[in-house]
Specification:
407 residues, globular, mainly alpha
Length: 407
Amino acid sequence: MNQQTSTRDKAWKKRIILFLTSQTISLLGSSLTQYAIIWYVTLTTTSGIMLTISTLVTFIPQVLISLFAGVWADRYNRKNLIICADALVALSTLGLAFSFFMGYRELWIIFLVSAVRSVGTGIQTPTVNALIPQITPKSMLMRVTGFNGSLQNMTMIVAPAVSGALLATVSVESTFFIDVVTAIIGISLLSFLKIPPHERAQSAKNTGTISDLKTGILYAYRHPFIKVLLIFYALLMFLVTPTAFLTPLLIARTFGEEVWYLTANEIIYSVGAMIGGLIIAAWGGFKSRVTTIMIFSTLCGVFCIGLGFSPFFLVFLGFMLFVGLTVPFITAPITVLLQERVEEAMQGRVFSLVQIMAATAFPIGMTVFGPLADMIDVRLIIIATGILTALCGFVVYHNKILRSQEY
């Protein structure tokens, strides 16, 4: 528990290193499988509809389970919940591997397993965010969160390359088995970690899940600081949708349709985000979390504007690198503010709301900006949303609720 964890407790470093290592190994295996599934569906069907269905079954279950996952994270032992979620993903992937070996490769089996894996991810993500402050000193949360973000982005750089190499040399089911092995390693490492149940898990009352769910939603709604921060986060995710999803379209229409252009775009962003995570981990940001969010939200918007005005592809990549670099300076302070300000007994439910906002903002954004991209120049959309993102930074800085209740 954070109240019992201080910088004088030197054991916390060993605990957090072991925990992050277990999660990174598990994430790498899951990412390899996810890319393998996407590429398998793409190459075997060449159907946009099938790819859309594949995307939906990896998205919708995660959103639906997230609210309940937050309740469980606040009610039960979080370490055990993460282990169970990881095991669920591994077992479903193992079943898919055996199905492929036996010659059953129907798409409905792949979609079913993808949905089960999505449920496991929906349980694991808010639980991990709720557990980190339980084993980390409050003064070190920003550094740990930044470092964790860098590990995740490093995984997102490595996973596509490794998955592609595996698919070129071994069968797709062999890639599935790697996910099972990494899950076993991650679960084994986490099992060695001694984390006592948080206070509410030790003295949980016999309340219903729906009742706990309502309590969590009302808690976030009635807490002005948390409510405003969540609204800002959802708005920011909505505004960066064009940069996240429409830049490949911009590249194809403006610079060319070479595959390496699209690959470079993804890698450069992840490299920038990884570097940004390492910097925020080493530096910790400004003393004021809100100031950090404001400055880098504004810079993110400015760099997005630069993407729209880029005359050459290398200039475009330079701006994309800086867009990626700014993101950890926004997401890490938001995460840490919630970890610091939300009561421990409510953290699972609040972080499930964060996950839902992130998971739904992009699809909503695409329903707005996707069709719009067929009517006007994508560059204009990215420039406009970049301007609004930069303005959001100023709004955050001058918001009285955030400024008055930050400390």
